[in-house]
Each structure stands twice: as structure tokens, then as C-alpha cells.
Amino acid sequence: MEHTEILEKLCQEKEGNRNGKWNATLLKGEGSNRKYYRMTAVDNGNSYIGVEGENEQEDIAFVSISRHLHSMGLPVPEVYGTSDDCLCYLQQDLGDTSLFSFMKNGIETGTFSETEKNMLNKVMKLLPSIQFKGDKDMDYSICYPIPEFDQRSILWDLNYFKYCFLKSVKIDFSEPKLENDFEQMANNLLGVSQNAWGFMYRDFQSRNIMINNGEPYAIDFQGGRRGPCLYDVASFVWQAKANYPQSLKEGLVDTYYDALQQYVKMDRKTFDNTLGLFVLFRTIQVLGAYGYRGLFERKPHFVASIPFAINNLKGLLGKGLCHPYPYMESLLGRLCSLPELQPLATSKYDTGKLTVKVFSFSYKKGIPADDSGNGGGYVFDCRGVHNPGKYEQYKQLTGRDQPVKDFLEKDGEILTFLNHVYALADAHVQRYIERGFSSLMFSFGCTGGQHRSVYSAQHVAEHIAKKFGVKVLLCHQAQGINEEFN
């Protein structure tokens, strides 16, 4: 059974209508390999988020943690049902507004409105509740990949930085000297008082907070485990791409410190020194992730985040590190001075300029017009693929419907066709991003604009949006369906 069919079954069970029909719309992902679908009921418009995972243990961790946090009255998506293997699950639809998108104007201009600041402070007040109310009776044995923040996991992250970032930018370093400082840092991180340990979210940042009816909800905590609370503060306040001004960072830290006192008593000097250590560690860690996702996998969103993380690192070095790591401090100083890191993420890989338009159309009605003034783009003729429209059972369906998808994929013609399209599209989109162009168009035509062209346009739009993180506008002309991925 296809995963979308499993998700539809979970929706039917939730609604108590085993014959109900549901539309599955693939949502854009970021760094995750999970697929998210908005499942919308044809008859009443009710919607849920269906998730298709790849790792059973990770999915079990998310579902279990979510159910526990929800039972504690914390704002997380409610999980309504799972498949037998837990690779598919159904959860509450919290809408499309992440905290990151809510603050778009402030992030772009560097000036945050009172509304944006108030929401940020609301999130910071919420964090200690998640960490310490969530810690109560939490079964950490289900956490993935490990139940607790420990030396091994710290060294994994530090070596991730070493091999995926330092070696990628080809900076010379002494591995033994760097390892000495890494081991000392691990000891310092683990020396934090156990009173300040609770549920460590691990990836607490603005893209993982949804705003629903004016209230923040926490999502994507499947990597959570028991650990020191200040890790999450460093993760949120020093999120590279959010680029908060220093005064706002200080205010958010103050808000968190005041809210923390309900659960943990920590004097301010100890708090500040400990936080500085975790900010340094988190910055090094995310550079490792940006190195892998950006420099190896060539995902522009992550490449574009590198200079912001470097700026955070410069700020930390400018203040002086709270613990002595002599060799690492010297190495990080050299790293911050590398001139190629800034253009790497701005002029070459600014995905914000490019909009990709993808159309399905009927040749009987003509090829879609290009209103950008740039003149066309690619037009692909899908009429060489076996046509479902010849068969009565498919005539009222489109290439978005599962029976048509199954028909097209059965003999593999459409898959071979699209593999060639993906190769062309990937090269072209990448080049347009690098050259700073603003518009690119792909059009897919077949006889009626209903089956083969719709299937192809839908898959190519989803592929480009997921791989490159650019804005994609999808239009199925014959059906009057418009969809946006961004």
C-alpha cells in the first residue's frame, strides 16, 4: 500500500468515515528526509498533517515524545494515529506560519517590530515549561539515537564540524591539538549541574515553532533527549539565519532566565558563563551541519546560512571565550577571516531571487504564455507516454489521483521520462541561482492537460522546491489548480 493511501486510511479512521476521500498535498521540507502532506477532506475541508518517515526508531521517538508533551498540557501537535510500523502518522494541522516566516520582515530588515518581539518573548517564556514540565515522567529510553546528552554525542558533533566543514573549506589544522580542545570542551559541557538538566529539545529554533491562532507550538523534536537546558537557549537565540541584533538577543536571554527561576535556581554569573559555552558549541555544531547539507549536498538554504553562523562566531571570539581552548580559538579566528566564505552564500547562492513556474497544459489550448518578459523556458511534450485517458476508469481522474499515478508508474515510462527532466531541471535551476536570475519556467503538455502533464508538472514542482528551497508556483491550467511551494 502506498504511504499516501495509508495516510488517507488514518484520516478516515480519525473522521469515522471509511469511505471519505482525501487529497494529499506534499509540503516543502527543509533539512529533513521526512515527507509532510496536508491531508484535506474532499467533503468537509477538514485537514491534518500526514507524515511519511524513513526511520522507524526516529518516528517512534517523535510520536512518543509528542504524546507525552501533549499529555502535560504543552503546545505541541496532537498525534491522532500511526501505521503499524510507525513510518506513517497523522497529526494536528497547525497551518503554514512558522515563527521564522512570522518574523520575515524583521529578519530581512534587521529591525523587529513590537509584535515580532512579543512573540519571541512568548516563545522564550514557553521554553522552560517544555524542558522541565516535559521532563516529568518522560521515558527517555525511546529517544533517538541516544537517550541522553553525553560525551560521545558531543564528540560526534565536534567531529562533524571537523570533517564536514573544516575539511570542506580546506583550512589547515593540527588534528591532535584540535582533539585536545574538543575533549576539554566535552568535559566542560558535561560539568553543568544536573539540576539544570531536563528535556533537551536539541533543535529549538524559529523554523520549528508554528504560530497557530496567535500562539506558538513546538514541532520537530524527534532528536530530543535528556540534557542541559541552556543548549536550547543557545540554539534559539543564536540561530544563524534569524540574525537577531545583540540587544534583542540580550532581552530574550533575560526573558528565559526569569522564566527559568520557576524550575531551577541558578545565579546569573554561572548562567551567563554556561550559556556562552553552549553558544560556542552550538555554533560549531551548526557549521558542521551547514557543511554537510550545503557544501556536500549543495542545498542553497544551508549554504546561505554559513555567513550568519560565521558572524556569530566572530562575535563570540570578539568577547573572548569563557573557557580556554587555545588552539581551537586560533583556528576559529583563521576560519572567520577566510574571504571566500561570505560570497559563497550571497551572490552565488541567493535562492531568494528565483521563482520557478511549473505548468501543466493541453496542447489543444496552446502552450502557456510567459509573463516574466524573459521568453519561455522549457516545454516538455508528455504525449509519448502511455495515456490513461484512453481508458474509461481514468477519464474523470487526473494525474494527481492515486489510480492514475499507479497506472503511469506501472510500466515505468513516466519515471524514465522524468529522470531525464530532473537532470535538466537540476542543472538549470542551480545555474539560475548562481547567476542571480529571477524567473524560470517549465511547462508540461499532453492531449487534454489532465493526466500525463499533470503528473509530470506536480512531481517536478515538488522536486525543485524540496531540493533547492526556491519559490515554486505550480499551475494545472486545465483544472484551474494553483499551488505554491516556498
Low-confidence stretches: 343-349
Helix content: 40-55%
Please describe the biggest sheet, giving its number of strands, its sense, and whether it closes into a barrel. 5 strands, antiparallel
Strand residues, percent: 15-25%
**What is the terminal separation in angstroms?**
29 Å
| Helix/strand class | alpha+beta
Question: If strands are numbered along the chain, what order do they take across the biggest sheet?
Answer: 1-2-3-5-4
Tertiary shape: globular
Rg calculated over all Cα atoms: 24 Å
Mean of pLDDT = 91
Number of strands: 14
Q: State the order of secondary-structure elements, H for helix, E for strand.
A: HEEEHEEHHHHHEEEEHHHHHHEEHHEHEE
Total helices: the number is: 16
Keywords:
single chain; about 475 residues; alpha+beta; 16 helices; 14 strands
Structure description:
The protein is an alpha+beta fold and 486 residues long. Helices cover 47% and strands 15% of the residues. It has 16 helices and 14 strands. The strands form 4 sheets. The chain has a 5-stranded antiparallel sheet with strand order 1-2-3-5-4, sandwiched between helices. β2 and β3 form a beta hairpin. The longest helix has 29 residues, at 268-296. The chain is globular. It starts with a helix and ends with a strand.
SSE arrangement:
Blueprint: H1 3-15, E1 22-27, E2 35-41, E3 47-52, H2 56-71, E4 79-82, E5 88-92, H3 99-102, H4 104-109, H5 114-133, H6 151-166, H7 175-190, E6 197-200, E7 209-212, E8 215-218, E9 225-228, H8 230-237, H9 246-260, H10 268-296, H11 300-319, H12 326-336, H13 341-345, E10 355-362, E11 378-381, H14 402-410, H15 413-434, E12 439-446, H16 452-468, E13 471-476, E14 481-485
Parallel strand pairs: 10-12, 10-13, 11-12
Antiparallel strand pairs: 1-2, 2-3, 3-5, 4-5, 6-9, 7-8, 13-14
